[in-house]
Amino acid sequence: MAIQIGQPAPDFKVDALVGKEFKSIKLSDYKGQWVCLFFYPLDFTFVCPTEIVEFSNRSGEFKDRKCQVLGGSTDSKYCHLGWATSHPELKDLKIPLIADYTKQIARDYGILLEEAGLALRGTFLIDPEGKIRFIYINDLPVGRNVDEILRVLDALQTGGLTPCQWKKGQSTIKT
Q: Which of 34, 112, 154, 175 lies at a CB distance of 3.0 to 4.6 Å from 67, suitable for a disulfide?
């Protein structure tokens, strides 16, 4: 069954690289707060580090919104560690990188390219009750816009109706 907006986000338990250590992470550990879950295709690629660095650099903006950022790919935790250790811009990551080595999470979230064995650039905003509120999927060569993800998070957190091009601080639509 395909995931849908408003439905519970598929839970998972997986190893992750947190700083330079391996930890077990469950999505349900973050119940009660927002989660921005994003997948990228592969470690040791060209577009992926630009996104990971941007999410990491802006993790404080997500935290200010009571939102935990979790990144990841279908690579192993050891691959994540090797990449984070060798890539100069990834050495001080402020976000966990989940290792979906079995590819089950990417499959559950509908972003796995089965034949290639890797995930599309999928981004999911999950509310404090564990429901999916936003799905944003890019093709492999196109990087995401973190500004837009933050804008949508802000809009969702208003609980109101937000018009096209709405930005934090602007009025919502009154009915």
A: 34
What distance in Å separates the CA atoms of residue 34 and residue 114, rounded to the nearest whole number?
29
* Domain covering 13-143: architecture: 3-Layer(aba) Sandwich (3.40)
Render pLDDT for 73-127 as a digit per residue (tens, 0 to 9).
999 999 999 999 999 989 999 999 999 999 999 999 999 999 999 999 999 999 9
Task: Give the pairing of strands 67-73 and 97-99.
Answer: parallel
| Active-site option among 36, 48, 67, 79 | 48
Q: Could you give the CA distance from residue 111 to residue 137 in angstroms, rounded to a whole number?
A: 8
48 is catalytic: yes
Contact (CB, 8 A) for 32 and 66: no
Would you say the C-alpha torsion 7, 8, 11, 17 has a positive or negative sign? positive
Round to whole Å and give the CA distance between 38 and 72: 6
Q: Give the domain ranges of the chain.
A: 13-143
The pLDDT of residue 94:
97
